[in-house]
Amino acid sequence: MACVPSFLANHGHGKRTKVIISVMLPLFGGLLLLFLLVRSFFASCKKAQTKESESREEQQGYIYNVLGFNGRILHDNIIEATEDFSSDYCIGSGGCGSVYKAALPTGQVVAVKKLHRSEDNILINNLKSFESEIIALLEIRHHNIVQMYGFCSHPKHSFLVYELVERGSLRMVLSNNEQAKELDWKKRLNVVKGLADALSYMHHGHSQPIVHRDISSNNVLLDLDYEARVSDFGTARILKPDSPNWTSLAGTYGYLAPELAYTMRVDEKCDVYSFGVLTMEVFMGRHPGDLISYLSSLELTSSSMSNDQQVLLQNTLDQRPSTPVGQSAQDLVSTMKIAVACLNGNPQLRPNMQEVSQALSRP
Asked: What class of enzyme is it (predicted)?
C-alpha cells in the first residue's frame, strides 16, 4: 500500500476544515440573525401589549396623574393604605359611598371616598362624560371647597381622592353634644356663610355653572377652626347652556328640591333649596324634617314676620350653645329669613346663591 506523503495528508485535512468552516459560518450567522429577529418581534409584541394594556387601563379610568404620583402607583398605595378598603379605616358613610382615611408613603394623609356599586356602574357606562366632569372639578380652587386630587374608576371599585378635613362632617359634629356646644352661634353663622360663598362660586364663578346636587350635612366638612368645606362632587354636574341638562335623580332624601319629584331637569335652584334645608339644620342642631313644608309656605320679610312665627323659629333653635344675644341674634334672624326664602316651593322665586352670599356678607 502506497504511503501518502505527510504534506499531502495535512493539505487534505486543511481543505476539509475550510469546507466545514465555510458552511458553518453562514449557517451560524443565519441562525443568529433569525434569533435576533424573533427576539425583536416578541419584544415589539410585548411593548405593544403593554401600551394596549396601559391604554385599556386609562380607558377604564385609573386615577389621574395627581399629587406628583404615577396614577397606577397612587391607586396601589391607596389600596394598600386602606387594606383594600377595610372598615377599620372608614371614617364616614353617605348616600353615594363610604369615606376612608389613607396615609400615603409620602406622609400625606388623604380622604378616599369609595362609591357604592350602583355608582360604579354609572361611572363605567358613562366614563367619558364622568371624566370631563372630574377634569373641570379638579380646577376648582376655593377656601370653602374641599380640594379634590383625582379619581379612579375600575370594575372592582371606584373612588375619589380628597384632602382630609380634620373634624369630619357637619352631621358628625352636630350629633356630638360637646362639639355641638362648642359650635356657637358665631361659628354656625360662619359655617352658613362659607357654604353660601362656595355655592356662589360654583354657580356663578365659572363660564359653565357647576351644580353639586347633594348638599347635605354629610357632605359639608369642618376643619379645626370650624370652617365649612363643601365635599363630595361624585354627583355634580356642569350645566351646559345649549343643553336641557336632564339627568337621573341624585342626592340625599330630605335635602332634595320638591320639583325633582316630577322633573329630571337639574339647575342651580336645586342647590339653593338644599342650602335652605342645611341652614335650618345648622341652627336647629338636627334636620328640620316635617317643619320644611311649613317653612316653605312662609314668606318672611322684616315687615310681615309675625310674632308667632318669630317665637316658632326661636323655639326650634339648638339649645346646646348659649342663647344668642346682640348682633349674633340679629344675624341669626336675618339668616333664617334667607333660608326660608331658599325653601320656596317655586324654584323661580328662590334667590340665587350669589344674592344669598352677598346678603350674608353685609355688615
From this structure: transferase
Between CA 44 and CA 52, with CA 47 as vertex, the angle to 5 degrees is 125
Question: In the chain, what is the straight-line distance between the N-terminal and C-terminal CA atoms, in Å?
Answer: 132
- The C-alpha atoms of residue 115 and residue 302 are separated, in whole angstroms, by 44
Is the CB of residue 190 less than 8 Å from the CB of residue 226? Answer: yes
- Is 271 tagged catalytic? no
Class of domain 170-361: mainly alpha
Domain ranges of the chain: 71-163, 170-361
**DSSP code string of 182-244:** HS-HHHHHHHHHHHHHHHHHHHHSSSS-EE-S--STTSEEE-TT--EEE---TT-EEPPTTS-
Helices (H), 82-208: 117-125, 127-137, 170-174, 177-182, 185-204
| φ, ψ dihedrals at 170, nearest 5° | -60, -40
Judged by DSSP in three states, 145 sits in strand
* Residue 245: partners with Cβ closer than 8 Å, 6 or more residues away: 237, 239, 265, 266, 267
Q: What is the pLDDT of residues 189-244, one digit of tens each?
A: 999 999 999 999 999 998 889 999 889 998 999 999 999 999 887 777 787 766 55
- 341-359 pLDDT tens trace: 999 989 999 999 999 999 9
Instruction: Let me know if the fold of 71-163 is the same as that of 170-361.
Output: no
DSSP calls for 315-336: HTS-SSSPPP-HHHHHHHHHHH
Assign a CATH topology to domain 71-163.
Phosphorylase Kinase; domain 1 (3.30.200)
Amino acid letter at 216? S
- Whole-number Å distance between alpha carbons of 6 and 319: 123
Number of H helices, E strands in the chain: 12, 9
**DSSP conformation class of 357:** H
- pTM comes to 0.73
